[in-house]
Amino acid sequence: MTDNLYDIIIVPDPVLKETATPVENFDDGLRAQMDKMLATMYDAPGIGLAANQVGLLNRVLVMDVDQRDGQRKPIWMVNPEVIWTSEEPSVMEEGCLSIPGQYAEVQRPKQVRVKYLNYEGQEEEAEFEDLASHCVQHEIDHLNGVLFIDYLSSLKRNMLLRKLQKAQKEGALL
Ligand code: NI
């Protein structure tokens, strides 16, 4: 780990099951955390990262589902809240930097509207659909101690966790 990147925490670390607390002070320390989280996410590489995954328990997430050809469209969210969800569901395969190499289909609302504080600390609202909707819901779940594998049957969940353990033992990951 270098100074400008966090280590990403892997299951079954208990910090991933904890609920992060709302941010009260929007200061340079918080912006430094947001910068470092974004750098860590791009380095992984991944499309979303929540504070719990770097061992911090404040309600901060970063995402960018639109990275192609070196173009970046980062979104920083502080204290995000889902304020509307569509009735229409969407099923997509999800993965997670804290559960490396494991993927499964998850059903969530196809569209969500989220209220949050942006990088400048101003209140903003935005609507997300499809991949971006899955991503923002997945990251907000992290802040509530919920992982995508929690939506699976215990049979499927245990199978994924065993596969991860086996891959770690064989040195294929980490
Ligand atoms: Ni995740």
Specify the overall morphology. Answer: globular
Radius of gyration: 16 Å
Widest sheet, order of strands:
1-2-3-6-7
Oligomer: single chain
* Topology order in helix (H) and strand (E) letters: HEEEEEEEHH
- Distance from N terminus to C terminus (CA atoms, Å) equals 12 Å
The total of helices stands at 3
Protein model, in words:
The chain has 174 residues and is α+β, with helices and mostly antiparallel strands. It has a domain at 14-85 and 110-148: Peptide deformylase (Peptide Deformylase), CATH 3.90.45.10. Helix content is 26%, strand content 25%. Strand 6 and strand 7 form a beta hairpin. It is globular and about 45 Å long. The model has no long low-confidence stretch (mean pLDDT 95).
List the defining traits of the structure above.
single chain; 174 residues; alpha+beta; Peptide Deformylase; five-stranded antiparallel sheet; globular; binds nickel (II) ion
Kindly summarize this structure in a few lines.
The protein is an alpha+beta fold.
Task: Write the SSE topology.
Layout (H helix, E strand, L loop, with lengths): L27 H16 L4 E3 L9 E4 L11 E11 L3 E6 L9 E6 L1 E7 L5 E7 L1 H13 L10 H16 L5
Antiparallel strand pairs: 1-2, 2-3, 3-6, 4-5, 6-7
This protein binds nickel (II) ion (NI).
